[in-house]
UniProtKB/TrEMBL annotation, chain A:
Belongs to the complex I subunit 1 family. GO terms for cellular component: plasma membrane. GO terms for molecular function: NADH dehydrogenase activity; oxidoreductase activity, acting on NAD(P)H, quinone or similar compound as acceptor; quinone binding. It catalyses: a quinone + NADH + 5 H(+)(in) = a quinol + NAD(+) + 4 H(+)(out). It is found in: Cell membrane; Membrane. Its EC number is 7.1.1.-. The chain crosses the membrane at residues 12-35, 83-102, 108-133, 154-178, 198-219, 256-276, 288-309, 321-341. NDH-1 shuttles electrons from NADH, via FMN and iron-sulfur (Fe-S) centers, to quinones in the respiratory chain. The immediate electron acceptor for the enzyme in this species is believed to be ubiquinone. Couples the redox reaction to proton translocation (for every two electrons transferred, four hydrogen ions are translocated across the cytoplasmic membrane), and thus conserves the redox energy in a proton gradient. This subunit may bind ubiquinone. It comes from the Bacteria. This is NADH-quinone oxidoreductase subunit H. GO terms for biological process: aerobic respiration. NDH-1 is composed of 14 different subunits. Subunits NuoA, H, J, K, L, M, N constitute the membrane sector of the complex. The gene is nuoH.
TrEMBL record, chain B:
It catalyses: a quinone + NADH + 5 H(+)(in) = a quinol + NAD(+) + 4 H(+)(out). It comes from Neorhizobium lilium. Gene3D superfamilies: NADH-ubiquinone/plastoquinone oxidoreductase chain 6, subunit NuoJ. This is NADH-quinone oxidoreductase subunit J. One of its GO terms (molecular function) is quinone binding. It holds the Pfam family Oxidored_q3.
């Protein structure tokens, strides 16, 4: 009985506690990221944004939460009820499940698995199901069109994201996310004899891939300017048209969790995760998690700014960008990176 | 052992139950969704055996891409399913035959490995110890080092198939306006805009 406790029960309790802690922190972070998104958008358009609930509108997201929860969920008569309710659950569960392998600090990771990056890629490729299912189950033209667009878009941009990931893998030689961050201790900067700094991070040698990943991330998470699945001028709200109250909130939450995930993946792959930008005692003293959050915030700021000032793409332009620009570019970069690494013997 | 066995039975049971639902569900979209659940549980079973790379590839390729296309097609089909279902029994003999063949093959494979456990040592590519070589690296050894030419040939065949599919379906229409992005970008105010001074009250 004692061994059962020490081998199974105690690790299980620890893992559940860790997961709950991560979940709570993540949800609070998402609440503020949502607010930041709206505030930045407003600031660009010289508006104030949400400023009524709490000081500077800081509690706006929680007010929204209460409103979502207490309103009545409406299920359309023609909807396929089971799938209709399953879709938001699928969307939010998958978006949150990916966070299990994200390292926030050395050893601050729930599941430090060997194929961490592949796991993230796999689960984020499943997120399309939340959208397809909701679009189909709503039994509405708008929702269905939105779902079809989204499916094609996400599958297309996954291809280039996959190749971007491959270039990073070639440089690191491991699929483990912690290894990927640790590999960025040394790089261009240390090769030039400098101490470990931001010059070692992957975004400098792999700059084209960094840009491709950023833009593909926008497309993968249906952010503007690639928000065609929910383009309000054509499809009202796309696949979310028929959703209300808590199911709608879950779709929204899933979307923002996915956005945040892409941001933290960018920071892990290209911006050195929790590594401090320069090797200086004061900066080294700041805990890694702060750097991680700052980097994620920086990338999200980029996402929010893009939302504010880039007009929406037309659908054929979106497909052209994905298949005719990013795919050849990232394929070429995979080949070039492999050749450079092989010829110079860096990897 | 205990926990692994529990998870094995959970995954296996859900996989078999949802495989049954794939063929018995009334709505074909539900069938595809159950198929996805089967894939998912198969990935779980792969994970239990330590084949983490295969599990993730199953998720990416089968669930993330193939099943999406499946779902795509099935959602857009407009078929009378009652009619489709009426003749289902006439295929039963074929189904039973296929099932029997698969079962026989499984029995041969499993029976063989139980009766002669030393046969596992004679295979050309023995599985390396997962503690020393992760199975991502081990698969890479086999695919990209030992059998790289076969891998290339497989790639070429796929490429030819892809080009064939495109050639068969491409219908390039002449005499329609197309957008040429490079030409658009190359335009300058000098070539695109004519500035005219309009005197008030006169027009052009």
């Amino acid at each position: 009985m004692d061994s059962f406790f020490s081998t199974y029960a105690w690790p299980a309790i620890v893992m559940i506690a860790q997961s709950l802690l991560l979940l709570v922190c993540l949800l609070i972070f998402i609440a503020y990221i949502l607010l930041a998104d709206r505030k930045i958008w407003a600031a660009v358009q010289l508006r104030r944004g949400p400023n009524v609930v709490g000081p500077f509108g800081l509690f706006q997201s929680f007010a929204d939460l209460l409103k979502f929860v207490f309103k009545e969920p409406i299920i359309p008569a023609g909807a396929n009820k089971g799938v209709f309710l399953l879709a938001p659950l699928v969307s939010v569960t998958l978006a949150l499940a990916t966070w299990a392998v994200i390292p926030f600090n050395p050893n601050w990771v729930i599941a430090n698995i060997n194929v961490g990056l592949l796991y993230v890629f796999a689960i984020s490729s499943l997120e399309v199901y939340g959208i397809i299912m909701s679009g189909w189950a709503s039994n509405s033209k708008y929702a269905f069109l939105g779902a079809l667009r989204s499916a094609a878009q996400m599958v297309s941009y996954e291809v280039s994201i996959g190749f971007v990931i491959v270039t990073v893998l070639l440089c690191v030689g491991s699929l483990n996310l912690t290894d990927i961050v640790n590999a960025q201790h040394t790089g261009l900067g240390t090769m030039m004899g400098l101490p470990s700094s931001f010059l070692d991070w992957h975004f400098i040698p792999l700059f084209p891939m960094f840009v491709v990943f950023f833009i593909s991330g926008l497309a993968e998470t249906n952010r503007p300017p690639f928000d065609l699945p929910e383009a309000e001028s054509e499809l009202v709200a796309g696949y979310m048209v028929e959703y209300s109250s808590a199911p709608y909130m879950m779709l929204m939450l899933g979307e923002y969790a996915a956005i945040l995930l892409i941001c933290s993946l960018t920071s892990i792959l290209f911006l050195g995760g929790w590594l401090p930008p320069v090797d200086f005692w004061l900066i080294n003293w700041v805990p890694g998690i702060i750097w991680f959050i700052l980097k994620v915030g920086l990338i999200f700021f980029g996402y929010a700014m893009v939302k504010a000032f880039v007009p929406r793409y037309r659908y054929d332009q979106l497909m052209r960008l994905g298949w005719k620009v990013f795919l050849p570019l990232s394929l070429a970069m995979v080949v070039i990176t492999a050749f450079v690494l092989k010829l110079t013997g860096w990897a | 052992m205990g926990l692994q066995a529990i998870f094995f039975y959970i995954f296996a049971f859900v996989a078999i139950a949802s495989a049954f639902m794939v063929i018995s569900a009334k709505n074909p979209v539900h069938s595809v969704l159950f198929l996805i659940l089967v894939f998912f549980n198969a990935a779980g079973l792969f994970l239990l055996t330590g084949a983490e790379f295969l599990a993730m590839i199953l998720l990416v390729v089968y669930i993330g891409a193939v099943a999406v296309l499946f779902l795509f097609v099935v959602m857009m089909l407009d078929i009378d399913f009652a009619e489709l279902r009426s003749g289902v029994l006439q295929y039963a003999p074929i189904g039973i035959l296929v099932g029997l063949i698969v079962a026989a093959e499984l029995i041969v494979v499993i029976g063989g490995s139980v009766l002669t456990p030393q046969a596992a040592q004679s295979i050309t590519m023995p599985i390396p110890n997962p503690a020393q070589r992760t199975n991502t690296a081990a698969l890479g050894d086999v695919l990209y080092t030992n059998y790289v030419y076969f891998f290339q040939i497989a790639g070429m065949i796929l490429l030819v198939a892809m080009i064939g599919a495109i050639v068969l379906t491409l219908r390039h229409r002449q005499h329609i306006k197309r957008q040429d992005i490079s030409r658009q970008v190359a335009r300058t105010p000098a070539t695109a805009v004519e500035v005219v001074k309009v005197k008030s009250g006169q027009g052009l």
